[in-house]
Amino acid sequence: MRDEELAGLVVGDEPASPPRHRLQRLIAKVFSVRAWFADTYHRSADNFAAFVAARQPALWLIAAVVGAGVGMAAVVFRLGIGAVQWLWLGDASEYSLHLIAKQPWWVIVAAPMVGGLVVGLINQFVIPGRRPGSVADVIEASARGGGGLGFRHGLSSAVSTVISLGAGASAGREGPVVHLGATLAAAIGALMRLPPQGSRIILACGVASGISASFNAPIAGVLFAHEVVLRHYAVSAFVPIVIASVCGTLAGRIFIGDVAAFVVPHYAIGSYWEVPAFALLGLVAAGVAIAFQFTLIVFDQTARTILMPAWGRPMLGGAAIGIVGVFLPEILGVGYEATDIALHGGFTLLTMIALVVAKILATSVTLASRFGGGVFTPALYLGAMTGGAFGIIAAEVFPHLASDRGLYAILGMGAVAAAILGAPISTTVIVFELTGGYALSIALLLTVSIATGLHLAVHGRSFFHYQLETRGTVLADGPHRYFLKTVMVSSFMSEFDGPASLADADDPRKVRANDTLETALRVFNETGADALAVIDPRDRRKVVGSVSHVQALRAYNRRLVETSVEEHR
């Protein structure tokens, strides 16, 4: 063996291949690459076919239509409030405290009283259920598959709220705009005959557009729709919701202008030694949020025990609001001007403390009296006042370390609102977009997290979820508990060709067709039966079908799987 061949073996070189072998390897590589391209093509084609089958292109187009439509509806809603306010103040602006101060006391009392009478008549004769809609109704509709929001209820609730806020009722406009947007979106979803998943996404699109157009906060609108309404961040829902939010924002900016809701000076954290103060502010904000929700609950439950005509309830509440407004006009209406003054440090310590107490009482009376309105803006208002008051005290105790009181007002605004709404992520972003800056991110995240955590420790739920639980809808325990209480036996039983008679009426192995899945599973467990007779709810001896234990478990598992797929797709 030659030295060259021996050296080649030592270093591991392969002997030269014949030309025929090299050609075979080249052909194999070509076919391998071709197979890879073919596999990639088929996989992409399958993905695109699934994309089209899920009606995603149509969903994107519907989202754009919903976003633009809801954005314009939010603009009309806002102009309507101003028009009603013009009737007694001669001005449609949100900054009208100087005009209220010039009014005789009887005008300030009469405005919410007369508005309350009109709202009461609408509640009595027009609105189903005799109460305006709210964000809680939207959350419930989402849990039910995107349906359940009546178009008539949505429009009449919007009219009731426009009159309420324009007349001076102490509540927010963003919650009603969310309800109106969701109502319009649900109507379009029903018209297009979307499946439950698509209907929920379009419902969330209406919510995102309403928030974006009302606050001029597109990012916050997207996050609020995911965090509060859908309660997940699935990628398949993200694109249409963003499209709707952008369209809603554009509609608002075209007709109202591209300005932040609150224009505040540039605030900066003075020293990192203030971090303990920010944490303490979170504790104080939690106390205000807890007190606010307790007061809302107490006033609501008290109002339910008072028997009186539905038309008279808002008028009586309007009189109480007007009397408080004579002495503290800052609590009337939506309250954006008073919030703005607090963010600029324009109130004294005692004034802000008084406004916190008065606003809590006035908003509780407003909602308990069945005026239209929400808790979003009042929560921002209370937070700004709480933070401003805390900032004054901090400056007195540590004059060389404390930042401007306006900075504390911004932090308090986010903390109280996040705790009440149960939406710390979207509320944090809303505050950023409302004030036009992200420089306070560390302090805001700290105060929001502490306030939200402590509020949850005491109440266990947001105000929206409390409202749902008063109607028998519990979502806080997860989707499995909701399915057990809402899925009916009639949806998964086997029907008989004709009704039969039950031989033994005392036999415990039976359920009614309108019993829940939870009831059926409990009867299976108590009787040990493999199958149950399903009886007519109106005739306990008439059997209309049967249901097996396996059918009940399959119905339960199927809905859990559908929810899991939707949340992770």
Automatic annotation (TrEMBL):
One of its GO terms (molecular function) is chloride channel activity. The chain crosses the membrane at residues 58-84, 104-122, 201-225, 237-256, 277-299, 311-329, 341-362, 374-395, 407-432, 438-458. Residues 503-563 form the CBS domain. It is found in: Membrane. InterPro entries: CBS_dom, CBS_dom_sf, Cl-channel_core, ClC, ClC-type_chloride_channel. The keyword Ligase does not apply. GO terms for cellular component: chloride channel complex. The keyword Nucleus does not apply. PANTHER family: CHLORIDE CHANNEL PROTEIN CLC-E. This is Chloride channel protein.
